[in-house]
């Protein structure tokens, strides 16, 4: 059949971070023709990662519009991907994770009868509205995929319970570890001087991220008021919060946390400085999914500001704890990790279940084996 034509599709910053090592591994293999198509579901944040990893897309749908709805993203991406697939005629499409681009990419491939490989498959929260719309995007993609690249054994079990054939499943680890290990540097200097002037050695620096749709409103207020209380009760703590661009997040953050000493509200960071900020932080509080996988590789405990997680392996391993979205519980768990050295070390020294930095190589080998078997 000649070279295996593999088209990688992604559209957001988190997808690009996790797909970048896969794209690079595909490019190195002489038996594969690698094609990259981005939807640009996110634009500026996506471009930052493409530049960092030196990836030049062959196709860019550039679908992002201000105030876009899920329906608009879905329809624009589906129409654009249909045309690209007709032109490229790939043997396999690779999608990643749980975004709208992920689901639409797999659906477009199904309509063109193209095989689908799902990177980071099998994660489940078992609540279709949390995370929303990601849980359903991921589940539907699983139904359309021919190869499922699972980070962990638990992800594999989820797929088996849904009737997926075990022969289609490979446990590979998570590509985010591959990406992370490439960008974290011991003596990293930030372009943001405010970050360079923080005393990471003698202060306990909390890195906070909060942006999820389901946390907007009262849950977000609870998170911010808990952080305010932490600062008031712990003189050796500083908080760094790269504030999401969503006006609902920004307005509330500056209302509650603005102008408080030792709380640094900064603009969102590119991936490289953010990864290095994680490495320098003492503790991380987040409602993000990917950070639950990344931070443990750096020995950083994570408190998850959500009521469910599709990454229970980290909780089981002890690298992550669920803090929920109630003010008192968030404060209590954070305060304990700041002041109880034994509790902190139990989390910091726990083994990360998400891989060894060689996930992308395993994915490429599985793709090649799939097509050899199909001959």
Automatic annotation (TrEMBL):
Quote the EC number. 5.1.3.14
Keyword list, A-Z: Isomerase
Recorded superkingdom: Bacteria
Give a Pfam family name.
Epimerase_2
A GO molecular function held by the record: UDP-N-acetylglucosamine 2-epimerase activity
SUPFAM superfamilies given for it? Answer: UDP-Glycosyltransferase/glycogen phosphorylase
Q: Does the keyword Isomerase apply?
A: yes
Residue ranges constituting the UDP-N-acetylglucosamine 2-epimerase domain according to the UniProt record: 24-368
Query: Which family does the similarity line name?
Result: Belongs to the UDP-N-acetylglucosamine 2-epimerase family.
Report the protein name in the record: UDP-N-acetylglucosamine 2-epimerase (non-hydrolyzing)
For this protein's source organism, the top of the classification is: Bacteria, Bacillati, Bacillota, Clostridia, Peptostreptococcales
